[in-house]
C-alpha cells in the first residue's frame, strides 16, 4: 500500500479526491489537511458517511507519505514553500493549481503580468495529461494537474494538429461549465439565487487564465468563451474549426485513432454528440463531431467531461497511478 | 404622490420592494440606502434595468418622506435608533425584521432568551397582516411586516379557530421554502453546490424563531418543520389538523368564507391543492384542503405563497396602501 | 376595445399570450380555442387563476373579432385554410408558426425540400419584427411572428450589416435555450429526467429550420448551434463575428445607435453582457459586445431575450398594437 | 457466475439495475428485454457507454437463467403469466411492481377495489425487505421488491413498534420525492416545464397505493402525503409520531440498535438529519430524529434514501445476493 497525503481536503476537488482514494485498492490516506475545519471529520463537512479525520497543516507529517496532492486555492502563498519542502524531502507532488502548468516562465509572466514565483520548479514540472505525456508523468517529481476547461479543448484539438488538418489556426471554443467549477468558496457568483435558473457568459475572448494551457498544448490560437450553467457537475464545449478544404469525416476519425486504446476517451460516430449526462460522475471524456461544410473545411466538435473527475481529481489519481507504477485505471473504473 | 424611503435596498426583499414601488402609481422613491453598494445604482447589483441610485444611510433625508421601509438584516443594532428617530420625526414605519411582531415583551423574552430592546415600541406596533388587522394597520405608526413562513400557517388556521372547529389544538405544519427565504447574504447554506439537487429539513420542532408569530395570531400550539427546496421563490406548507369529529368539507368552506372578499386569497374547491407555480411572482395566497377521515376530524391543508411578494415586499406595499389611504391593491395587480 | 381571437390556447405561447391580453387595456378576448381541453377553462390547464373559457374551433366565431392569433403547432394542416378564411373575411392575422416567414417560395422549397403550401399567402406576409419592419407591419393583413432563436441573431447582426462593418460574412451563432422553447408537447426531450441537470447540443451547423429567417433578414451566412439549457425560459446567444480590421468599440456603438429609441432594446456598455435573469419574464432584448482582437476585427456579441415574450407572444402583441393603431408598448410594460 | 434475465430494461429501474449488474462480480446478464427499443442497445437509449443488447420478450430464453427481474410497468397484463411460467420452470423471480407486496388477498381487494389476479402467487411471495425478512428472502421463489416511499416509513417505524414505544398508533408521514420516482413514461406531470422550479402535493391522506405496504409491515395507521420535488433522485420523509410520555432519546437509540449491523442503514446522532445529498447515488438509508416535547412523547424523524438504489434496483440486487447465496453487499459497495 502506498501512502499519500492531501493538502486542502475541504474544497470540492479535495472531497472528490478522498472519495476516490478511500476506494483505491493500493493506496491509503495518511493525512488530509484543512484550515477552519481542522479537528473535524470529512463527514462533518460534506454529505458523506466517510469520516476521514481533518488535521491542521502543522500536524501533517510529510515523512509518512510517498506522494502528496496539493488542492489549495489558486494563489495561496503557502503553496510554493510546501511544494519545495516536499520535493526536497524526496516526496512526489501532484498540484491542482495553475501555478506549474506553463513550461515557460516568460510565457507565464507575459500572460499573468507578473514573474513566476518559482521558475526553477516550473521547468521541472510535467503537464499532467496522461494521453499526451504519459511517459514523462511516470518519472515526474512534480505534476501540474490540468485545468478542467483546457482539457475540453486540448483533447479534441491535439489529434487534428498532429494530423496537420488545420487550414485556419484560430479556433473558437465556446464552453459551458457547471457551478462546481467555481469551487466551494462563498461568492455571489455561486449563490443559489444568482445562479439557478439563469445562464451567463464571463471572461470572454482572450482573457481567461487557462487560455495559456490550451495554446501551449495545441499550438493553436484560441478564442475562448466560458459560460456558467445552472448544473453542478460537468463541462461541455462546442468548438468551431476550419480545416483544410475537403477534410472528410473519415480523415477526422483517422486522426482520432491515436486515442483508440485510451481507457477514458470515447469518440462517437459522426454526427453524434455527448451531453453532460454521459460523463457526470464518471472518468469518461466523450467527443463527437459534425462536418458542416466540407468544401469550406468547417467542422463543429462537441466535447464533455466531469470537471471534478476527468477534469480534476480523477485525472490526478490517473497520474498518481502512473507515478507509483499501478495499473493506470486502478480505483477509477 | 407620496414619498417613501427604503433602508436596505440590496437584499432580496429590498430589491423586490423597489420593483413594486417604481410601478406604483401614487408613490415615488425618495431614497434607497445601501452599505457597501452606496454610490452605485440598483442595476449594478441586480439583473434589472431599473437604475435607482443607492445612497449611504447618512445621505438619506428622513424629512423628505412620508413613510419608510426598513429592510435591514435581522438583529442589526442600527434598527432601533432608526425606527425611534423616524417615529419622533412623525414618519410612519414598516419594518421587515422580526423585532416588532410579538405584542408581549415577556413572550419575546421567553422565546428569545433575552429582553426586548425597545418594549415601548413593541406595544405600539401592529402586526402587518391586513386580512386580520386591516383597521389597526390604517392608523398604525409602526407596522411589523409578517414573516413569510408564519403567513402560510396563520391564514389557513385562523378562520378555523374563529369557527371553533378544533378538537386538538396541537397542529403540525410541515413547510417547504425556496432558497430566497434565506436571503442574499453569503453562506454555505445558500451556495449552489450545497442547495441544488438536494432537499433537507432544519430547525424542526419547536425551535424556529417564527413560531411565536404563528402561535400569537392563532392561539394554537404548533409543531413546525421547515425544509429547504431547490427552487428560488415560494413556500408551500402542508398542515395536519384534528378538527371536531364529523367536521365536513362544507363547514370548513363556511369558515373560510371570511376571506370571500379578500383580493389576494383564493380557497380552492375541496381536494384541490395549490402548487408553487400558482403563486410565484404573484401576490396570491392560495389554499386547498382535504378531509382525510371525517369521523376522526383529520384534515390536511396545503397553502402556498410567494415569499418575496405576499410573504414580504408585496404585503408591505399592501400595508402601505392602507396606511396612506390608497386603494389596497394599488400597484399590486 | 378591439376584439381578438386565439387559435391554440393550450401551448406555452398561447398561454403567455392570454396572460398578456387579459391585462391589455384596449383589447378583449372574444374566444380562445383548444382541442382536447375544449369545454374547460385556462385555470384547469395552467397554474393560473385566469379562467378564460376554452372552446372548440367550431365554436369560434370569426365574425366577432378584428384580429386573430394562430398559435397552432408547426405543420398543422388546418393552418392554411384557417388563415385563408380569416383573410377573406377581412380579418387580420398574426401567425406564430414558421410557415410565412420566408418571402421567397423558392427559398422555402430549397430549404425545406418541399413546395410551399400557399405561395400566394407567402408573398403577402410581413416578417413580424417591428424594429426592422415597423411600417409594413402597420398595414399588414398577415404577419409572420418571428422565431425566438432567429431574433437573438438578427437584432445584433442587422445594424452591423447596415453599417457595412463585416469583413467575413460567415458568422457563428452559438445559442442556448430554455426548455419552454421546445413547447408543451410530450417528448423524452422535455422529460424532466432527460433535461434536468444536463446540457446538450442538437441540430448543429447548417440544419436548423430557423436558419432561413436569420439569413433572409441579415444577408449573412450563418453557422448555428442550438443547445438545450436546464432552465425554463430564455435564450442566450454567443455570436462570433469578424469585422473589418480596426473596427473599434465606438464604431460598433454607433451602428447600434439605430436602436436608440427602441422601447424594448438595450445595448450594454462595452464589455458588459446580459444574462438570462435580465430578460426572463420581460419584453427586454439586451445585448452586449466585446472586441477581442481589434486588428483582426474579432468581436464577440452576447444577446438574450425571453423566448415566450420578446421571442413570441409579447412580440405578437407588439405587432398587434402597431396593426390596430395602439401605442406600441400598450400592455407590455 | 450466476445468469440473470431482466424484463423491462428501458425504464429507470431497469436501467439502474443493469448498471449495477454489469459491475457485479458474480453475475452475468443473459438477456434484457424491451418493447419498442428491441434490437437496439442500452447506449442508444440512455446516456451511458454500456452497450447491453435489448431483445424482444419472445427472444428471451428463460432456460438460460437462474433468476429473473421483472421491471414492467404497474398493471401490465403480461406480468402474471410471465411470473407463473418462470416459477414453473424452476426459476426465481424478483418483481418490481406492487402486485405481490401485500400478503392477504382480501386486504388487496379492499384497498384496490378489485380481486387480486393471482392469489396463489400472493401467498407464496416474500416482501423483499432484507432488514425485516432476511431469512425468508434467502429461500423465496418469488420476492416482491418493496416500494420506494414505503421504505422511508417502514424502516424508521418498525423498530419503534418492536420496542413498543407508541402512545398513538396514528402516524403522519410527509414525503418528498424526486421526479425519477414517477418513472420514464411521458406525462405532463414529468414534463420539465411542469415540474422544474415548482413543488406540489398529490394523493394526500389515505389514498396512495403504497399505503398498504406501510401498514402491513408496521401495524400502524398512517396518514401519508407525497410531494413532488424538482430533483431527479431521492426521497426524504418527515415523520411525526406520538410516543409514550417520557420516551427519551436514549430509548429511541436503543430501539434502533436492531439495525447496528445492517450494512446499509445509518442512524445519526440525536438532532442530526439526513439530506438528499447524503444518499443520492448510494445504497445508504439514513435516518435521524429529534424529540420535540418529551413529556408529550412528540418526536420528529427524518429518513432519506435513493429511490432508484436502496428504494428499487439496489435493494433488488441485495435480495438477489441473499437468494443466490452471495455476500449480501456484493456489487453494492
TrEMBL record, chains A, B, C, D:
Q: Which InterPro entries match?
A: AGPR, AGPR_dimerisation_dom, AGPR_type-1, NAD(P)-bd_dom_sf, Semialdehyde_DH_NAD-bd
Annotated active site residues, numbered on this chain, are: 148
Function, as annotated, reads: Catalyzes the NADPH-dependent reduction of N-acetyl-5-glutamyl phosphate to yield N-acetyl-L-glutamate 5-semialdehyde.
Q: Please give the coiled-coil regions recorded for this protein.
A: none
Asked if the keyword Amino-acid biosynthesis belongs to this entry, the reply reads: yes
Matching entries from HAMAP family are given as: ArgC_type1 (MF_00150)
What name does this protein carry? N-acetyl-gamma-glutamyl-phosphate reductase
Q: Which UniProt keywords apply?
A: Amino-acid biosynthesis, Arginine biosynthesis, Cytoplasm, NADP, Oxidoreductase
Q: What range(s) does the Semialdehyde dehydrogenase NAD-binding domain occupy?
A: 3-140
Report the Gene3D superfamilies cross-referenced here.
Dihydrodipicolinate Reductase, domain 2 (3.30.360.10), NAD(P)-binding Rossmann-like Domain (3.40.50.720)
Amino acid at each position: 500500500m502506498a501512502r499519500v497525503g492531501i493538502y486542502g481536503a475541504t474544497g470540492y476537488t479535495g472531497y472528490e479526491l478522498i472519495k476516490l482514494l478511500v476506494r483505491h485498492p493500493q493506496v491509503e490516506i495518511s493525512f488530509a489537511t484543512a484550515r477552519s475545519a481542522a479537528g473535524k471529520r470529512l463527514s462533518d463537512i460534506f454529505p458523506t458517511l466517510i469520516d476521514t479525520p481533518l488535521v491542521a497543516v502543522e500536524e501533517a507529517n510529510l515523512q509518512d507519505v510517498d506522494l502528496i496532492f496539493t488542492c489549495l486555492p489558486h494563489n495561496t502563498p503557502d503553496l510554493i514553500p510546501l511544494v519545495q519542502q516536499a520535493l526536497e524531502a524526496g516526496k512526489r507532488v501532484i498540484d491542482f493549481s495553475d501555478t506549474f502548468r506553463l513550461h515557460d516562465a516568460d510565457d507565464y509572466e507575459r500572460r499573468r503580468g507578473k514573474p513566476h514565483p518559482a521558475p526553477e520548479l516550473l521547468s521541472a514540472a510535467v503537464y499532467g495529461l496522461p494521453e499526451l505525456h504519459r511517459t514523462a508523468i511516470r518519472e515526474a517529481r512534480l505534476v501540474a494537474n490540468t485545468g478542467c476547461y483546457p482539457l475540453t479543448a486540448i483533447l479534441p484539438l491535439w489529434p487534428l494538429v498532429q494530423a496537420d488538418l488545420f487550414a485556419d489556426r484560430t479556433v473558437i471554443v465556446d464552453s459551458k461549465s457547471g457551478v462546481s467549477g467555481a469551487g466551494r468558496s462563498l461568492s455571489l457568483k455561486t449563490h443559489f439565487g444568482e445562479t439557478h435558473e439563469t445562464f451567463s457568459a464571463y471572461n470572454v475572448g482572450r482573457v481567461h487564465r487557462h487560455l495559456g494551457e490550451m495554446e501551449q498544448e495545441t499550438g493553436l490560437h484560441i478564442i475562448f468563451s466560458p459560460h456558467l450553467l445552472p448544473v453542478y457537475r460537468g463541462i461541455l464545449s462546442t468548438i468551431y474549426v476550419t480545416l483544410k478544404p475537403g477534410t472528410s469525416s473519415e480523415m477526422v476519425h483517422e486522426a482520432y485513432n491515436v486515442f483508440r486504446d485510451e481507457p477514458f476517451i470515447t469518440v462517437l460516430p459522426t454526427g453524434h454528440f455527448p451531453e453532460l449526462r454521459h460523463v457526470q460522475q464518471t472518468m469518461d471524456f466523450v467527443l463527437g463531431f459534425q462536418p458542416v461544410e466540407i468544401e469550406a473545411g468547417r467542422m463543429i466538435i462537441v466535447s464533455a467531461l466531469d470537471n471534478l473527475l476527468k477534469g480534476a481529481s480523477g485525472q490526478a489519481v490517473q497520474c498518481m497511478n502512473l507515478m507509483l507504477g499501478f495499473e493506470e485505471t486502478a480505483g477509477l473504473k
